[in-house]
Amino acid sequence: MHNKTQEIIKLEEFAVVVISDATNYNLQAFPSVEPALLRFSNIIDQYANETGESAYGIFVSENIDYNSMAIFQRQFWYRPDDSKIPFTVIPLTGAQYESFSRFFEQPQLNASIIREKLLSCLQFRQFDAPTWKKEIDRIMQ
User: Fold this and answer.
1) For domain 4-140, which CATH number applies: 1.10.10.60, 3.40.1620.10, 1.25.60.10, 3.40.91.50?
2) Are 136 and 90 within 8 A, CB to CB?
């Protein structure tokens, strides 16, 4: 599976699904982009159906180029019955995720701060990929 790892972090009222890719090449250059999006959509859809809560996806890779950013701006996946599974995935570099993950390690975990960071990143998803990437970097510092 191209050295991918997966983790589901359950918080109050939502979860964070993290899929990490240990390879060191552009996402556009290999055929696992769609399987990664499918994994996110299936996990997020299943979590929502089982708990009634939302889940946010984070894709971690050392190289996140603008074309990769554009792929993750997609907000849904189609089921076999042609219905849509809405989902949100934020692509982060390893350094950005390392900075973000410190919020999970605090003694008094504050889920609202984590959700605020995620939503701050997502509010720029409708802009072009370079702008979104720049804003994510700013927010995750």
Assistant:
1) 3.40.91.50
2) yes
| Measured distance CA(30)–CA(106) in Å, rounded | 36
20: three-class secondary structure by DSSP: strand
Residue 15: φ, ψ to 5°: -135, 160
Q: In the sheet that 54-61 helps form, which strands lie side by side, from edge to edge? A: 4-11, 14-21, 54-61, 89-92
Q: Return all residues near 91 (Cβ < 8 A) that are at least 6 apart.
A: 58, 59, 60, 61, 64, 68, 69, 72, 136
Answer for the pair 17, 8: CB distance below 8 angstroms, yes or no. Answer: yes
How confident is the model over 85-126, as pLDDT tens digits? 888 899 999 999 999 998 888 878 788 889 999 999 999 999
The residue type found at 70 is: A
Residue located via tokens 């802009």: 127
Q: Is this model's pTM higher than 0.90 or not? A: no
- Domain residue spans in the chain? 4-140
